[in-house]
Amino acid sequence: MADWEIKKTLGQCSGTEREFEVGEEFIAALVQTEEGLQRRPRYGRSK
Q: Could you point out which of 7, 9, 32, 45 has its C-alpha 20 to 30 Å from the C-alpha of 38?
């Protein structure tokens, strides 16, 4: 089994940089970067 180190979300959408509200639902993707796997949170729907 691989050991993955994934950084905690910054609490904002990686596309719009809008901060998540408490309890707001969002989706996230894991992306391979030069720094390793990173979580890219995105809103599931436009506001």
A: 45
